[in-house]
Amino acid sequence: MEQLSSVPEVRAYRACCRENNQRVAFVPTMGYLHQGHLALVEEARRLADVVVVSIYVNPTQFGAGEDLDRYPRDLDRDQRLLKALGVDLLWTPSNQDMYPDGASTFVSVEGTLSSQLCGASRPTHFRGVTTVVAKLLQVLGPEVAVFGLKDYQQFQLVQRMVRDLFLEVELVGVETVREADGLAMSSRNAFLGPDERSAAPVIRRGLLAAARDLGAGLAPDAVLARLGAEVTSAGGRVDYIDVLEAGSLGRYADAAMAGGLSPEDLPALIALAAWFGSARLIDNVVVTVGGGPGMQESRSNGAPHGSAAD
Questions:
Q1: Of 150, 171, 149, 151, which is closest to residue 160 (Cα–Cα)?
Q2: CB 272 within 8 A of CB 284
Q3: For the domain bounded by 2-174, which CATH number is listed?
Q4: Boundaries of every domain in the chain
Q5: CATH annotation of 187-287
Q6: Is 34 a catalytic residue?
Q7: Catalytic residue among 34, 37, 125, 305
Q8: CA 176: distance to chain centroid?
Q9: Which residue stretches of the chain have pLDDT < 70?
Q10: Counting CB atoms within 10 angstroms of each CB, which of 94, 213, 214, 250 has the fewest?
């Protein structure tokens, strides 16, 4: 496995891949890898000849008082894991590589995709995400990029950015990898103490119960109230809970009305963020209600746009 840092080095590496007619798949990460990240790498290997993984803790997606300085890092361990999976290139840019002196250009996606959920509770977060992803894609120019759907809103935003900026890359979303008790794998799980770790799976249990309730026809407000009470009773502190139309992330009932549909005819995203101790955890489920109760995992593949497609 080769390891590079600078933009010129990565561009030269990519040029060699083009000369050899090799298809490149890219997995952007912030490191401290877990099985969820490794599932993305495995999917990338299935899709391409060359797999590139980046590890970069991007400062612009952390707001004031957030956990940038204590975000978990273990590059040596990450290198061993990626090498064992046959990753071809590990890209470890520095802040100077990504944001050279005087850098003042940012990429923002406007509207409901960015203003709700994590966009409301972390107002500068997604500007940082879309900016760094645009930079990484622009430098590497992969044919395909693979993202996890635990960060459902992030995936929707990156899809919109890729479409709007005519970036020639196919986006693939991979469903959330979970612990045996249902807790979504996350680097931030390292912040959980024993009691908090024991309580945190209530997020998944609550979301599945909320999906059943919504599918059975319970009003969204009642679904959210039940879910919030369950998380709170387990010791969690709710950041947000919402039911949104799964495509636009617009208000569930409003999106149905605009399309002349009943809400039961639209897929709904039930999304939650909650604090357990110092760990802020997110998860979601996509519910298909039409025709009776139903639930599906959040899963998405980017559709092609032009010549192309945490």
A1: 171
A2: yes
A3: 3.40.50.620
A4: 2-174, 187-287
A5: 3.30.1300.10
A6: no
A7: 37
A8: 9
A9: 253-265, 289-310
A10: 94
